[in-house]
Amino acid sequence: MVIFRTRNLFQMLKLLRKPILIILFALCYFVLIRPARALVIDYQEPKVTELVQQDLVLSLDESSSSVAIVFLGENEHKKYQYKTSFGSYFLFATLLLIGIGARRNEFFFLLITHLSLGIISTVMMWVGVSSFFGALTISDLISRYLLPLSSFLIVALAYSQKLNSNVEFDE
User: Fold this and answer.
1) Rounded Cα distance, 23 and 29, in Å
2) How many CA atoms lie less than 13 Å away from 133 in the CB half-sphere?
3) DSSP alpha helices (H): ranges in 101-146?
4) Which helix (H) or strand (E) holds 27?
5) Whole-angstrom Cα distance, residue 140 to residue 135?
6) Residue 153's pLDDT is what?
7) DSSP 57
8) Do residues 134 and 128 make contact, with C-beta atoms less than 8 angstroms apart?
9) Could you say which residues of the chain have pLDDT below 50?
10) d(CA 53, CA 59)
11) In this structure, are residues 117 and 55 in contact, taking their beta carbons and an 8 Å threshold?
């Protein structure tokens, strides 16, 4: 009788593992990662503002998680966006990876992708603001397109790999 109850308890804990992990990660995201992103923007904002004020060609629009840099040309205005990595795309991709039961290396790959693209985007933003305006295009491309695409591509590849590993081939 005791063995039966223990077995049911283990089965119930196994069923609740993914929802518990999802809730724990969401809490960690909103308590740790989101404030860290705000600190990064708060750290960069005065330095970018100083560089932008030195150059009359740029203006700055800011929010809590992104910086929009507007290039004021003679005939046109171009708006470039810089976002810190580990945003909502990281949150949704991680939650989806937990939901499909991905392996640790897929989580690690998502983490490394966001970290490396975030560093490249930050460097390009600084280069674009300080000297070469064309680098702002690269930062904008990474922030708007490459980070979301890579996040969900990792989820799609992990899901495809999981499906392929569960398929039995007839011989």
Assistant:
1) 10
2) 15
3) 104-130, 135-141
4) helix 2-28
5) 9
6) 96
7) T
8) yes
9) 1-2, 56, 169-171
10) 8
11) no
How far apart (Å, rounded) are the C-alpha atoms in residues 124 and 107? 26
Instruction: State the distance between the two ends of the chain, measured CA to CA, in whole angstroms.
Output: 44
For residue 41, the Cα-to-chain-centroid distance in whole angstroms is: 15
Question: In angstroms, rounded to a whole number, what is the distance separating the alpha carbons of residues 79 and 72?
Answer: 9
- Measured in residues, the chain has a length of 171
Give bridge partners of residue 79 from the DSSP assignment. Answer: 70
- Alpha carbons 15 and 165: distance in angstroms, whole number: 21
One DSSP character per residue, 37-89 reads HHHHHHHHHHHHHHHHHH-TTEEEEE-SSEEEEEEE-SS-EEEEEEE-SSSHH
Residue pLDDT, tens place only, 74-94: 666 677 778 888 988 999 999
